[in-house]
Design a protein that fits this description.
The complex is a heterodimer of chains A (about 190) and B (about 220).
Chain A: H1 3-19, H2 78-91, H3 93-96, H4 105-108, H5 120-124, H6 127-136, H7 150-168, H8 176-188
Chain B: H1 8-35, H2 55-61, H3 66-69, H4 84-91, H5 102-110, H6 130-135, H7 140-144, H8 161-169, H9 193-202, H10 210-213
The chains are: A mainly alpha (about 190), B mainly alpha (about 220).
């Protein structure tokens, strides 16, 4: 092989090797979520919904079961309450506080104080009221329609019911065994 | 015939040959160290943002949960960056005339989103999925560092393939119970027998096939 050929080979390898450094694949023409895109006049790849669009998934939509009734359409069980508690802690505690007294952190920083969730009025209102407050907002309280799915809103409603019960439960509802446990802890205090 | 080369030439030529090899190796090593360094990968470097949004204020100061803003982190690939409406849930009333929040109000009025600068950004030929990591009990802090101490956001790792694989080869060192995923404290991940039983249920596998991330 002549020296000239050898040099050519070296050159070719160098070109191919540095060609690998080309970064086209790093930023491909596909759009990642929320990436800017020049194709649209306003540069948004996430297109705003047109008016009249009907949501297909439960986020933002009302489940058929709840369209008329005022009671919680989901079966209230331990799993639903656990889910409701978790979601309440994320979305409601900032203002309503962990136990619903209305002294959350944001209120302490100057947001309007919400009423306690334990008032006789709120205890007397149907489940549907809480669901609607979350969906539509209430006074200065923002709507949570976009942040919380419909099922989760019902789960939170169930949890609020449990919170309310926690202050007004009578010892009669307990079984004899639970009752003696309670008495034992009382005595231990 | 007289000697053309001085006897020392042997030494010199050896030294130059091996020296050149050594220097080439050194240069390669240097390039490797630089490209994989935290410095070259902008680790712990803050980016300019349209609004000085502070995780420190909102997460450790106010106790907000990540999911209040990053809505889709539990189930989708994309964690979600909050819409302006979510800021306005509170800032319609709080600091409602702070000049620092002017861009937020402007965005709310016009409907044009804020243009946040990406901090953690993988190349487009890699697929990352938040959902699987959250469901398998990897804490946010394992990958993103102490977000609750960041007045402006920076990234906590190089996000190189090696960074992913270090964990994918031995995920058991990083997995904890799902209930601890959003915790801000650096508790020892797995402490009790219940935790072990819980993690057992996740059936964590080693995902090292190229096609797990490149497809």
């Amino acid at each position: 092989m002549s020296r000239f050929r050898l040099a050519l080979w070296f050159g070719a390898v160098a070109v191919v090797a540095t060609g690998g450094c080309h970064s086209d694949m790093y930023d491909q023409p596909k759009v990642e979520p929320l990436e800017a895109n020049e194709f649209f006049d306003d540069g948004r790849s996430a297109r705003p919904l047109l008016t009249g669009v009907v949501p297909r998934d439960p986020v933002g939509a009302k489940p058929a079961a709840s369209a008329t009734g005022t009671a919680n359409p989901l079966p209230v069980n331990q799993a639903l309450l656990a889910r409701g508690m978790q979601r309440y802690m994320i979305y409601c505690t900032p203002c309503h506080g962990r136990i619903g007294d209305g002294d959350g952190m944001i209120v302490r920083r100057g947001f309007r104080q919400p009423p306690t969730l334990h008032s006789d009025r709120l205890r007397g209102l149907p489940d549907r009221h809480f669901y609607d407050v979350m969906t539509e907002g209430f006074g200065v309280m923002p709507s949570y329609r976009k942040q919380i799915s419909s099922d989760d809103r019902w789960a939170i409603t169930a949890y609020i019911r449990a919170l309310q019960l926690s202050r007004h439960a009578s010892p009669e509802v307990l079984t004899a065994e639970e009752r003696s446990k309670l008495d034992a802890t009382e005595a231990a205090r | 015939m007289a000697q053309i080369f001085h006897p020392l030439t042997n030494v010199v030529s050896r030294a130059t040959i091996f020296g050149a090899l050594l220097m080439a190796a050194g240069a390669l090593w240097l390039i490797y160290m630089i490209t994989t360094s935290d410095y070259a990968n902008q680790v712990s470097v803050v980016r300019a943002q349209p609004v000085d949004f502070s995780h420190e204020h909102h997460v450790s100061g106010l106790g907000l949960d990540c999911r209040y803003c990053h809505l889709s982190v539990e189930n989708s690939a994309f964690a979600g960056v909050p819409a302006t409406e979510i800021c306005m849930n509170c800032h319609s009333q709080i600091w409602s005339d702070s000049p620092k929040l002017a861009p937020v109000r402007e965005s709310f009025r016009t409907g044009m989103p804020l243009k946040w600068t990406r901090v953690n950004d993988l190349p487009d030929f890699v697929h990352f999925h938040h959902g699987i990591h959250i469901q398998k009990g990897i804490q946010c802090r394992t990958c993103h560092g102490d977000m609750e101490k960041m007045p402006l956001t920076w990234k906590a790792g190089t996000l190189h393939m090696r960074w992913c694989l270090d964990c994918h080869r031995s995920p058991e060192d990083h997995v904890g119970p799902r209930s601890a995923v959003f915790a801000n404290s650096a508790n020892p991940l797995v402490s009790t027998a219940e935790d072990f039983a819980e993690i057992e249920k996740y059936q964590v596998r080693k995902q090292t096939n190229c096609s797990a991330c490149h497809y």
